[in-house]
Amino acid sequence: MILGAILAGGQARRFGSDKALAEIEGERMIDRIAASLAAQCDAVLLCGRTLEGFRSVPDRPAAGMGPLGGLAAALRVAADEGFAQVLTVPCDVPDLSGNLSARLGRAPVCAEDCPVIGLWAADLADRIDAFLAASDDRSLRAWARYCGARAAPALALANINRPDDLAAYLAR
User: Fold this and answer.
1) Is the dihedral angle over the CA atoms 51, 47, 111, 64 positive or is it negative?
2) 3-class DSSP state for residue 127?
């Protein structure tokens, strides 16, 4: 079983407002992402924030740890609830492929061009807790090296970080 996890605990400083709620073709970006994950996962979780209509969990062990805090929260939920893997995506990549876990391959793995997109074994929950307790490096790349994750080939997906990224995406 795969738990889909949307990592959404960031501040969206470069975007200037809540980019998860930005509309694309009349739909909130976060809803597009959730629908894509729901089609390929057994359940979907929103990490790092609360939003009506979503099962939400706070980042672990605390807010402000970046995507690793969301991943740690998702891995803990997965381990506690019997999921085998966690498929992570950020809240700002609106066009996820239909079978992302197959494109990524065997866990642990993350996308070379967007390491927030990854497939992680649920049994890494204790290891990520230990990593966060022992290291000041909060990058997903550091975590990937630590747990021996492979880098999957670049996925070349649109990533909406700034208002002009959204404008370019909408103009395509």
Assistant:
1) positive
2) helix
Inter-residue contact 48 to 91 (CB < 8 Å): no
Total structural domains in the chain?
Answer: 1
Residues β-bridged to residue 56 = 46
Among the listed residues 84, 151, 146, the one whose alpha carbon sits nearest the alpha carbon of residue 118: 151
- pTM listed for this prediction: 0.91
CATH number of 90's domain: 3.90.550.10
Query: Over the stretch 89-104, which tens digit does the pLDDT of each residue have?
Result: 998 888 887 789 888 9
The dihedral over CA atoms of 137, 73, 92, 4, expressed in degrees to the nearest 10, equals 130
DSSP state of 159: -
Which positions ≥6 away from 81 have C-beta within 8 Å?
A: 3
pLDDT in tens, 45-83: 999 988 899 999 999 998 888 899 999 999 999 999 999
Whole domain around residue 148: which residue ranges?
Answer: 2-171
